[in-house]
Design goal:
690 residues; alpha+beta; Thrombin, subunit H; Rossmann fold; 30 strands; globular; binds adenosine-5'-triphosphate; binds magnesium ion
Length: 690
Amino acid sequence: MKTTGTVSGIIANIVIVRADGPVSQNEICYVILGETRMMAEVIKVIGQDAYVQVFDSTRGLKAGDRVEFEGHMLEATLAPGILSRNYDGLQNDLEKMDGLFIERGSHTEPLDFEKLWEFTPLVEAGERVTAGSWLGEVPELWISHKIMLPFAMEGDYVVKSVVAKGEYKIDEVIAVVADTQGAEHAITMVQKWPVKQAIKAYVEKPRPFRVMETGVRAIDTFNPIAEGGTGFIPGPFGAGKTVLQHAISKQADADVIIFVACGERANEVVEIFAEFPHLTDPRTGHSLMERTTIICNTSNMPVAAREASVYTGMTLGEYYRAMGLKVLILADSTSRWAQALREMSNRLEELPGQDAFPMDLPAIISNFYSRAGLVKLGNGQMGSVTFLGTVSPAGGNLKEPVTESTKKAARCFYALSQGRADSKRYPAIDPLDSYSKYLEYPEICEYFDQRIEPGWVDAVYRGKTLVQRGKEAAEQINILGDDGVPVEYHERFWKSELIDFVFLQQDAFDDTDANRCPFLKNMLPTSEKPPIVVAVIDLIETLPAIEEDDDIRKFRVFLRCFPLLSDIGETISSQPNLPLSDDPLEQVDQSVQPLGLVPGHDSSGMGKLRQGQEGVVPTIHPIEVNIFWAEILSDGRPDGAQDCGSARPGRPDNGEMGAVFDVEDGHPTALLLRNVCQPDGDRHMVPGGR
Ligand SMILES: Nc1ncnc2c1ncn2[C@@H]1O[C@H](COP(=O)(O)OP(=O)(O)OP(=O)(O)O)[C@@H](O)[C@H]1O
Ligand SMILES: [Mg+2]
């Protein structure tokens, strides 16, 4: 018989319940207010009194109201059909809910119990199985969803019978297994699992040894995250945490993405709902939504369920990991979850820790992060959960408790800097403050040596050193003035800028830049060329020393041209019938004007041409354009560029560089750069197409 109780005290959403039977910690109960059944979780038990946290507003509740205990913890329902759904933190299917706002006490089924799934058995009668063993599979969108022996079933079992291949509903019996005592258990495609407990249906959790490609160059090159690894993105308000996570969720090399929107603004999630169904997954060609599940507990939804939302997300991730898949969980923002914990702890009148967060905050956070990881399943296959959360430290103070505690738990740290965000250098990941501890793992170094090039990690460190020296030089220049420092300081500074422009910056809203230049895919060496990043770093290290001041200016002008060139490349390729002119100046203007934009750009021009573009098929690869610029620099060409002075980049009217396009059958095929001052001077070509 179920335990019941009556309300004896109410402190906001904490309700004290006098129970008439046994109550366990974290048990779920329903607080009954008239017709409404509000879900709640037991967070403290003292004698007969249970302190429960209600996931809804307790407005109107009074002492004496009835409470029913369920006898189990908060559970996630696991079965085919989870992918591409939008849940709230308690796994209610948001699409099944009516109205604009969630009604108090409304619950919906997370899955479709009527739908038929094509089941194919993977075991036969007589086989031995344990929790997590694959009994069969059903196609769910594009993945093969494994039906497993429920994780809660401990010990060894023997399969008595399995249904034949065919169509079944998720709650139909698909197998019968017997335990060692001979008792039989019927297995369906649905199982439940308490979200606060890790799913441990694996044999081993080795150290991560592969890299998860995120598609964000600043991460993949300088601070890669391992598959099965953990990382976090702290950043002041508006520094680009959400945009960065969205960019990762589009490009990451994962089979399943779980996006937990925890306590952030609802419109940010709406962007995903609206955008993802129309985007294609770069790896499979299917709609991006088909690999994504969104858990949404935004700022206008009950605060208490925030905590549940991150756990529900993790549980769904672990479930798909047990099928041998690569799962990426993104949570935005874990600070909101910590704030929910703080609220609860304050109401319980617990002893406060730093900033009034609960004393055990570091333990709660590290427990959660430790659920991620690469695992070896019973059948020898590997699966992984990679976790990347954001943290919003108030005022950008990285010494606050949530950032500090997360730093202890996560292995990658992507600090967003206000300075970089202010100067529109996105993603604002600070190349020096950020780190990835995976670069220290010999397994990961070996992986890079084999996948990319021997000595890759050394090249990364060399690149970081160049950036570090550039930063130091910039500080000196700031203090002593342009003329107060030796010319090498300028050189160091601009060299680090080159790295910044060539690969650290990436406009998340520029189709070419964000979606077509994920680094690892493009940086594999070819027979003639070393990987791009190594080429750039080598190049910078071997650039001839700058001797005259004019050269420094040249460097600066060239750097400012990069974004312009990639834009033009894209514009031109989107308009194959654009008339071409012999005059490069005119060419630049012609290519920009149809879009209603003014020719000539400043350094933040990347992506400005985005508006008004449709169906762009870029043939120019911005990075190659950039590399190409770097090559010109190393050759010391073009000679005519000395006089450029304060000329606007991209506008060769003062005798600087111009861009023209190579034509074949009247169509532009490549971007050519020419020194306009010397019409017969050297021409360099950037090959089009990719
Ligand atoms: N990679 C990027 N490329 C281009 N623009 C970006 C990029 N990252 C951020 N931005 C710009 O910065 C703005 C703010 O970013 P975002 O909303 O992600 O900040 P946030 O850190 O999540 O803020 P909050 O703490 O308020 O949630 C974006 O609207 C966008 O204009
Ligand atoms: Mg945000």
